[in-house]
Write the structure tokens for this entry.
Amino acid sequence: MAACLRMVLSRAGVARGEHEVREALGPPPLTLECAEAFGDHYPLDPDNPANLDFLLQVVDRGWCLVEVRGGPAAHNAGLGGLNSPHGALALPRHGLPLEMTATPHHIIVLTAQESGALTYLDPWYSSSGQPLRVNRTDFIASWWTGALLVPSDLASKM
């Protein structure tokens, strides 16, 4: 999550290292709920269509952070041939579907939405080949907790 917040800070013109952001967030485990000091946290129900509408309105106004299942997100990114310097985010195991072997609390930065697709940045992967795009159907399937963080005036909090 620190990497995602660092991306948003950088876009706002505030240069901070990931280590500085991580220190400001506090000890792990880090979820979007832990980052409430950096913005407005919305624990949405991903099965409620009105919440997707709300999310799309938020994305139209600016960047936001969402929590997704690592497995489907990793699978979608992998389709573009991206490799991570951190290794595999999730691997199929024992014949289980990828979403059942996912790393929990994977955070991505949604940057835009248009033509039935969402554009996002995923710090798990190198910046080469990003931003990534995912269609809304795949995004809904990978949106795990429905947790959403809309960053506020981050510069004043760092």
